[in-house]
Amino acid sequence: MFKKILKSYDYSLIIVLTMLVIFGLIMVYSASMVSAVQRYEVESDYFFQKQKLNLIISGLVFIVTAWIPYKMLQSNKILVPMVFLSLFGLGSLFVFGHVAGNAQSWFKIGASSLQPSEFVKLCVIIYLSAVYAKKQSYINEFNKGVVPPLAYLVLVVVFVAVQPDVGTAAIICLIAATVVFSSGMSFRNIGKLTGIGLLFAIPCLLIMKGILFSDVRIGRFLAFQDPFQHEQGVGWQLANSYMAVGSGGLKGLGLGQSIQKLGYLPESHTDFIMAVIAEELGIFGVGFVIVCLGYIVLRGIFIGIKCKDPFGSLLAIGISSMVGIQSFINLGGISGVIPLTGVPLPFVSYGGSSLLQLSIAMGILLNISMFVNYEQNYKQKNERTKPETTKKMNGQAFLFRK
């Protein structure tokens, strides 16, 4: 049994994840070594050492979650405390939260920080997947099967948006929309939800216009339109990101040889780490990251399609969408496709909360994949042995009759 379980794990997913996080660790050191000394006045390997510790802790958590059966997450004994703890954590930020980057989104724990909204993304995926999986028999009854689970989503989005962290709130909405769209409800009900969402969003925008249209956020839109026109102000980061990406070319300047990380790109090891990768390793470095992220997303969707259990299927698709959406928003921001939102690049950017949450999510995804492969292999084995058993039994019956 134990050997069969081990054989059923998706080792291609493990290999790609391992390559990506190790590559990310190397690039965190390269991107942060100068800013660590100049800006933070610490040792050049300070962020590298912290990320290495984050990686060790996250790796252990990944192994544990990959072994625990994902179906346990569907239990009310886990769902109910998870919902209350996530809301309590978000609510506590307004009293005990630490302000950084114009948002009160972190708990300061010694020299480390914890961002609850990162873990809430996964909580939303688990909750919506579990509830809509249980409601499959009446998924198209709008008042009974569609609306009730969304109360939790609305509370979470409001709590995150008023921190204010509009980017993360938007990501949570997009992830939730993916799970809802994949839940099996009719397009009619999806259309109703979209209409209700727009009606709810309009008054929220009016109430929160002071937060949503602050000078910082308006500056991001101005930078998005033409960063070089505002190069000495709000367009500083994006303009230097363009220069980093443009100067990398095909092969890059070489590992550790970035110029823009020498004080020109303030968030070089977090939000703008891909700009440093492009400058130092060129198209090959960027391509490696995009291929790895693309494989994780597509593999997760494939696992979700293969999974016959509605909960496992929705969970896999939700986790895959989370990685894909965050990757697109980060890459779109540094390349000027969309305005900057301050979203880290999954598995690559520096950050303990993000890496830990993603490790939990990947462990769950790997566990779903293991169950899918195990059941498929077991079923195929039964189908191969069944005709032989039937033939043997028929032969024995024939001899007995004679």
TrEMBL record:
It is found in: Membrane. It catalyses: [GlcNAc-(1->4)-Mur2Ac(oyl-L-Ala-gamma-D-Glu-L-Lys-D-Ala-D-Ala)](n)-di-trans,octa-cis-undecaprenyl diphosphate + beta-D-GlcNAc-(1->4)-Mur2Ac(oyl-L-Ala-gamma-D-Glu-L-Lys-D-Ala-D-Ala)-di-trans,octa-cis-undecaprenyl diphosphate = [GlcNAc-(1->4)-Mur2Ac(oyl-L-Ala-gamma-D-Glu-L-Lys-D-Ala-D-Ala)](n+1)-di-trans,octa-cis-undecaprenyl diphosphate + di-trans,octa-cis-undecaprenyl diphosphate + H(+). The chain crosses the membrane at residues 12-33, 53-70, 82-101, 113-133, 145-162, 168-187, 194-213, 272-298, 310-334, 354-374. One of its GO terms (cellular component) is cell division site. It comes from the Bacteria. InterPro entries: Cell_cycle_FtsW-rel_CS, FtsW/RodA. Its EC number is 2.4.99.28. It is a multi-pass membrane protein. One of its GO terms (biological process) is peptidoglycan biosynthetic process. Keywords: Cell shape, Glycosyltransferase, Membrane, Peptidoglycan synthesis, Transferase, Transmembrane, Transmembrane helix. One of its GO terms (molecular function) is peptidoglycan glycosyltransferase activity. Belongs to the SEDS family. FtsW subfamily. Peptidoglycan polymerase that is essential for cell division. This is Probable peptidoglycan glycosyltransferase FtsW. It comes from Niallia endozanthoxylica.
